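Consider one such protein record:
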Amino acid sequence: MVNRRISDDVKRIALWLKNRRRDSDHKICQLVDFSLSTLYRTLCRNRATGDVTKKLAIGRGRPQKLIHSDCLYLLRLARHKPTLFLDEYSCRLEEYRDLPVSLATIHASFKRAGLNVKRVQKLASKRNPMVHAAFVRRIGQYPANYLISLNEVSKDDRTYAHLWGQAPVGQRVEQHDPFVRKRRLSMLAAMALDRGIIAARVVEGSFTHQTFYEFLRDDLVRFSYCEAIL
């Protein structure tokens, strides 16, 4: 059997049986389940080096371009600004660490670290964690069924265009979609716990201050008043 890794413990057992001189070489090979030539090579290696373990290969494979500290530097860059391109990472390595590295090497380093390409989730730049925490603390004083959530959505001819697709390697994913927005519709809905949507309004275009106020006055408040009477 070729290309089978044999444990060093099994080889030591074979040598112990050989030194005991009670079994023949063929019997020893049957007991430890390897060939006669493997037994002779193990004997020669043990006589030459004093052990059955093979020497570790020195210089096997190509030397790594990036060491551990360089990979950590790349990960810190990716954590600080995750939208950088690979050529920007390459420029940073060459400028600050004097390492001219290919884009494929950087990509392989990210892949080994468990990083992959994802769509960017946009967050408001003016978002304040302290103000957000204060709002959560204040709103948490009320029961959940007292709260009404409002959500505005819009739709036009470009809304249902797909952003991802499949194609053979080296080819683009092409699809003819409208680039003109044309007619735009916006909907504002009020949702309550265990009730679902309790009020909604659809307008052409976007909601303005006046249309939003009319929705609160004519739809939401009137619905709540009717519910209170019933």
User: Anything to note?
Assistant: The helical segments are 8-20, 25-32, 36-49, 68-80, 86-96, 103-112, 129-139, 209-229. The two ends are 86 Å apart (CA to CA). The chain has a mean pLDDT of 84. Residues 14 and 28 are 6 Å apart (CA to CA).
